[in-house]
Specification:
By secondary structure, the chain is mainly alpha-helical. It has 19 helices and 6 strands. It binds arginine.
Length: 457
């Protein structure tokens, strides 16, 4: 085995199985671009401060750029015994540029280095997830616009409750996604600080310019306690927590899509390109994308719990346990990034069966509340009105009919105050159209809300 970079005080070589457990290159190599970005900022600052010569700084920078290019192109692979990505790049740098390469780590520790790399990496990935979320948001918004007059039942307890429109239902998900984007922005803002200069845990005696490094990296500031700087992983937990909540929203939406695409509902049909068949039942068309999105939510929650439990008992400052943070947060990022594009495509291409939705809205007595409200307008106290409306519903259930199909004589046998205007009062159009209060499903109100949602973009 090649000589380890910290081997000065060691008399023996590492056992192979110890190296296998200790090494993180297998998973932290994915942060190579961020590691190199951080190292370039650090070496430029070392040169500017006169801690190394300008010439050495340039040579280091060039070496790092060539390493980045070779990893990008595949000319340089991670087929190495290096312990982690930080060691791998430093070893490669020294092999390429010689003595100057050994000066890169001046005034730095892998402890502040890895804390920076992870921040940069998660920031990059969150920025991409944000773009994917905006795509999804646009697609849902478009579907909502097409369905402002598509009546459907709203449910509580998964029992038909009151009529709404499909646009109103979709707008609920747009509200959730707005909050998800807000959480990503909020986490990103807090994450965007440089811990470099924290050293191993007690800072450093070199005259580093910490703000300069942060500026070069495009971050918004620096950390203010060296012990916190190397031991804080809140940013990874916040990111995964935001992703968990987002995942929960996608999962609830998925559950509805699965229900709606069933033969029992038939509210929507998922496009062939976004469904799968059965190896035995020729007639099957399964909503696998929605099921996987729902299923993978458990996995993202698992990642969040891994992070919380890993951190909960750690004394300050850095502990090797923290290496375990990486795979969990990477998995959460990978999982969400993998779900969002197919999920968006599925929503974009699904066919909305407006007739089936409207038919369902007309059944299930979703206008019973409006009937009660009608009686209230005629002067009956709400509690009594509720009772009369309930009796009318029971009457209809016994006769396999609906409220709007009853004749005026029948209505009046339940209350003398009911007049011919009852039919208009309990029609689907009125039940939805009269709900014009902010946040309610009336087409004009939803139209206004969709315009507000559009402004968010
Ligand atoms: N690979 C390590 C990690 O991810 C880098 C930091 C190592 N620090 C140390 N003191 N051994 O945690």
């Amino acid at each position: 085995m090649s000589k380890l970079m910290w081997s000065g005080r060691f008399k023996k070589q590492l056992e192979d199985n110890v190296n296998a457990l200790n090494a993180s290159l297998r998973f932290d190599s994915r942060m190579y671009a961020q590691d190199i970005r951080g190292s370039i900022a650090h070496c430029q600052m070392l040169g500017k401060q006169g801690i190394i010569s300008e010439e050495e700084a340039r040579s280091i920078e060039q070496g790092l750029i060539s390493i980045k290019e070779d990893i990008d192109s595949g000319a340089l692979t991670f087929n190495s015994k290096a312990e982690d990505i930080h060691m791998f790049i430093e070893e490669e740098l020294t092999a390429r540029i010689g003595e100057a390469g050994k000066k890169l780590h001046t005034g730095r520790s892998r402890n502040d280095q890895v804390a920076l790399d992870q921040r940069l990496y998660i920031l990059d990935r969150l920025a991409n997830i944000r773009i994917q979320l905006i795509d999804l948001y646009r697609v849902i918004l478009e579907k909502a616009r097409e369905n402002i007059y598509t009546y459907m039942p709203g449910y509580t307890h998964l029992q038909r409750a009151q009529p709404v429109t499909f646009a109103h239902h979709l707008s609920a998900y747009l509200q959730m996604i707005q909050r998800d984007i807000g959480r990503i922005d909020d986490a990103s803002k807090r994450m965007s600080v440089s811990p470099l200069g924290s050293g191993a845990m007690a800072g450093t005696t070199y005259p580093l310019d910490r703000e300069y490094v942060s500026d070069v990296l495009g971050l918004s500031g620096i950390t203010y306690n060296s012990m916190d700087g190397v031991s804080d992983r809140d940013f990874a937990i916040e990111a995964t927590s935001a992703l968990s909540i987002l995942s929960m929203h996608i999962s609830r939406f998925s559950e509805e899509i699965i229900l709606w695409s069933s033969q029992e509902f038939k509210f929507i049909e998922i496009d062939d390109a976004y469904s799968t068949g059965s190896s035995i039942m020729p007639q099957k068309k399964n909503p696998d994308i929605a099921e996987l999105a729902r299923g993978k939510t458990g996995r993202v929650y698992g990642d969040l719990i891994t992070l919380l439990v890993t951190m909960k008992g750690l004394p300050l400052t850095y502990n090797k346990d923290m290496q375990e943070i990486q795979e969990a947060v990477f998995d959460a990022l990978d999982t969400i990034e993998g779900i969002l594009p197919p999920f968006t495509g599925m929503i974009e291409t699904m066919i909305v069966n407006k007739d089936a939705m409207q038919k369902a809205a007309l059944g299930g007595f979703t206008n019973a509340t409006d009937l009660a409200d009608y009686l209230v307008r005629k002067g009956i106290p709400f509690r009594d009105a509720h009772e009369i409306s309930g009796k009318l519903v029971a009457h209809c259930i016994d006769r396999h009919t609906t409220l709007e199909a009853l004749d005026i004589v029948t209505f009046q046998s339940f209350s003398k105050l009911i007049e011919n205007d009852i039919f208009d009062a309990i029609s689907l159009e009125t039940c939805v159209g009269k709900r014009t209060i902010t946040g309610a499903p009336a087409p004009d109100t939803v139209d206004t809300e969709l315009k507000r949602l559009e402004l968010f973009l």
